[in-house]
Structures are given as C-alpha cells and as structure tokens.
Protein 1
Amino acid sequence: MLQARQLAIGYPGRRVGAGFDVDLDAGSVLALLGPNGGGKTTLLKTLLGLIPAQGGEVLLEGQAIARVPLRERALRLAYVPQAAATGFGFPAREVVLMGRTAHGGLLARPGARDHAVVDQSLQRLGIMALAERPINELSGGERQLVLVARALAQEPRAVILDEPTASLDFGNQGRVLREIRRLADDGLAVLFTTHDPNHALRFADRVLLMRDGATLAQGPVAELVRREQLQALYGAAVEEVGSGNGRAFLPA
Ligand SMILES: Nc1ncnc2c1ncn2[C@@H]1O[C@H](COP(=O)(O)OP(=O)(O)OP(=O)(O)O)[C@@H](O)[C@H]1O
C-alpha cells in the first residue's frame, strides 16, 4: 500500500534521520515507538508527502507520492495529526464532513451518502453528542476523537495517526485503539505512533523502533516489544509484569 525505501527525513538545513525502510500493508497495523524528538512525526509527514524526502523514495501503491495528485492522495491516505488547538469554531460535524471533500467534485454539495458516512463515523467514536459543538470549545481528548472520526469519514485505504491516544482517558484510549484494529481487520493499512509500548503490544502486528534518527529494529510485535529492546530504545529501565498474553511493561 505504502512503501518507503532508504528514506532520509528532515527539514531544510536539518537532517533528522536516514535509512528508513517502511512497508504499510493492507490489513496490518504498524506501530512506531521511540524517544521524544527522535523523528517520529517527521517520518510520518514524509510518508504522507507533506514534507519532501531528503533522500530515498515513498511509493503510494507503487507510484512516487510526490507525483500522486492531492485529491488522489486524500482518497487513499488519511492523516490524524496530534490534536492541536484551533482558532476556528466549526461544529464537530462539519470538521468530520471535511473528510468527505475528496469524494465530491470541486464545490460539490455533500450528498445523502456523505452525511450518512459522517453520522456513522461519529457513532463509531461515540461522539454523536458532540456533533453540534464548536471544535474550539472541545477538550483536547474530545478534539482527538473528532479528528479520528474525520479520518474514518474519508474512507481511505491507509490511515496514519500521530499519537492518537495522547490526550485520551483510559476508556477512550481503548475505544480508539479498538477502532484502529478494526480498520486493519477491514483491510486498511494502519500506522500509529505511541509512547505506550503496551498499545503496540496489544493492537499492532509489527513495530518499528526508532532512535536517534535511525531504525533500531523492525519486526513482529511479539519479537520486539520485549524488556531488553525497550530498555535499549528508551535508554531507561523497564519492568515487565504478567506473562504470556497478559504481559505488560511499566517504566521502572
Ligand atoms: N519544522 C521543523 N523545522 C526544523 N526542525 C524541526 C521541525 N519540526 C521538528 N523539528 C526537529 O526534528 C526533530 C524530530 O522531531 P519530531 O517531531 O519528528 O520528533 P518525535 O519523535 O515526533 O518527538 P515526540 O515524541 O516528542 O513527539 C527534533 O529535533 C525537532 O526539534
């Protein structure tokens, strides 16, 4: 679905990392783990074609992403950014409806199907009660759920989420992570970043461990979400509790 080969990432005059090989496959969830400032968001933005690669290439279904027209990109690829405060007071429903933009013609009015998909997305995230509230009056976590609903409404083939659970309470973390799993089970390719290795352990198929602008390791969750790997990744002590399917990791 989405592939990167020997990708170098960064900003003008500032190299953040290099040597990334990434494969986002239909029906599979990839989790990206790594310390603060390691380059996770920069990698996501490069995969999305929002900032140019400094080397290597990103292919969207085999085509160089820079050459895929923006509308085509929006039909195939959804992005859930870290929930930032916004000055605009659009009602939440309108924000979710914006996810439908690429499906209509230029200036086309949304149709019955667009509104049905928006309702369905609001329901899946359990936020129908927020539909008419202005987005700039919502809490950070509520806003995050609206952004995930907007990505669902886009009906893409791949979804990339930047710390989707960061500002969510425990219940809503589960809601969003289950939704992420369900999207992959429905055949989408999914990539999300998280600071909680347990989220990767429970909901992802593969992980990419990223540190100092490079790939420390990449592979199946069961092989890499382990105490020694996490200690190397974060340069900090990690405690393992439980065992088998019930195992989890805590900062020690
Ligand atoms: N617009 C920018 N211009 C120049 N440097 C930037 C820009 N945005 C981020 N950086 C730098 O790039 C590096 C990687 O940042 P990035 O946001 O990708 O890390 P991250 O792994 O997502 O971090 P966190 O876990 O804290 O969100 C950092 O050193 C950061 O200061």
Protein 2
Amino acid sequence: MTADETGRAHRREAITELGDALRTLVEHATTTEVPTGDLLRAAAEIREVTARLGDRVRDRSTLSSADDLLGGVRMFNPVTGAGSALAPPLQIEVVAGVATGRCTLGRAFEGPPTFAHGGVSAMLLDQILGHAVVASGNPGMTVRLDTTYRAPVPLLTPLLLTAQVQDVAGRRVTATGTIATEADPGTPLVTATGTFVGLRAEQTHRLFGKLLRADP
Ligand SMILES: CCCCCCCCCCCCCCCC(=O)SCCNC(=O)CCNC(=O)[C@H](O)C(C)(C)COP(=O)(O)OP(=O)(O)OC[C@H]1O[C@@H](n2cnc3c(N)ncnc32)[C@H](O)[C@@H]1OP(=O)(O)O
C-alpha cells in the first residue's frame, strides 16, 4: 500500500466510526424521553461539535477525499454509506447478477407506528436495483420506480433485499427487487420494478464531467 492509500484507508475507518456514532445519536435522539433540560443541553453540546466539523468542508462540486467514484466507494451515500447518519446502512453484495442487501431499520425510519416509512422502502429498493443494473454492465440512472407495498416493513428487524436485471433494451434496463425479513425471506413485503436509462456520452459529460475529471 502507498502512503496515500494507507491515509485514505485510515480516513475511511474514521468516517465509519463517526457515521456509527451519528447513527446512534439519531436513534437515541428519536427515542429519548430524558427531561427537557437535558434535551437543550444536548443540543448546545452537539452544536459545538458541529462547529468543529464545519471548520473545513467541501463544496457541492467536490467529491469526498475518501470516495472513489469509479471504484464505487461512496462513503456518504444516504442508503449504503458507512459515513452517512441517514443510511441504515444497507450492505449490498452482488453474486452472479443477483444483488443481496441486508439492513435493520431503526426507529428514525418510522412511518406508520412501529413500521418503516414507505419512502424509505422505495429508497432501499432504488439503491439495490441500481447495484444489480451496474453489475449487469449497463449502468444508468433511475427514470421510473414502481413500488408495491404488500405488507408493512417492521422496524428493528433484520431485512433481506434482493434485486436482479430482467431486461436490457438499448439504453433502457429493467430490474426488479423485493424487501422481506431475514426470518421469512419467501414472503415479499415490498416489491419494485425499476427502469434505468444509460447516459449518452454528452449527458455523462454534462451531468458528471467535472466530478469524473477530479476523481483521483
Ligand atoms: C465500476 C463502478 C462500480 C460501482 C458499484 C457501485 C454501484 C453503485 C450503484 C448506484 C445505485 C444508485 C441507485 C440510485 C439511482 C438514482 O437514484 S439516479 C437519481 C434519480 N434519477 C434521475 O435523476 C434521472 C433523471 N432523468 C434524467 O436525467 C433523464 O431522464 C436521463 C436519464 C438523462 C435520460 O434522458 P434522455 O436521454 O432524454 O431519455 P429519453 O431519450 O427520453 O429516454 C431514453 C429511453 O428511456 C425511456 N424512458 C425515459 N423515461 C422513462 C420512464 N419514466 N419510464 C419508462 N421509460 C422511460 C424512453 O422511452 C427511452 O426508451 P427507448 O426509446 O430508448 O427505448
């Protein structure tokens, strides 16, 4: 490993550590019933830490120094990113064209009481469908996502997601996916069909050209 690679690996570990701490913070902030005074003290302390993190920030058109866009490392992706306070995070692996994802949703993801918000399910499915699409060798952006909610998705329960590509027609790729519980993988709770469209060179250049040139 070069010194640069070692430095990047350490930074990714630190980002993951911070992400873990933030996710625990979000979960406790969502569920706490401590006295009101303690809430106000916590808010003041968190603002102090926030100010320290804000000392040096990147702008909208700069990637995180820990990311590797072409290698598929996005530390702050809101679904899979180990550094994201918003991400469950969903852990995805793709084997023989089938993407498999695992996560447990905390109470911060609640929609109907004790169950996941429907938008969160759609977000998880969009991401895992995207991984299956990329793995098929036809990367593209989502242009349509049809989601069917068959049964509520329980919180604090290990979930199992799967996705695979069904069809490739020119620039258009269709993929399907499901969310189930790990305990009962044969019973889909949410299913989705997504349409992804591969970008033409001009579109890639227009939307992401600056980022791709900056990726080390
Ligand atoms: C090596 C690295 C490893 C990495 C390993 C990590 C993996 C990492 C995975 C990331 C996974 C991320 C997963 C989240 C993915 C997002 O969240 S993407 C964000 C949300 N999506 C967007 O913002 C896209 C917005 N849409 C657009 O910008 C434009 O629609 C696009 C995509 C540039 C395409 O524009 P366009 O070229 O003008 O499209 P157009 O010619 O109208 O249509 C092209 C084709 O699509 C069809 N189409 C268009 N819209 C629709 C529609 N709504 N319904 C059905 N068909 C449609 C058209 O009918 C047409 O079909 P054909 O006639 O060619 O058969």
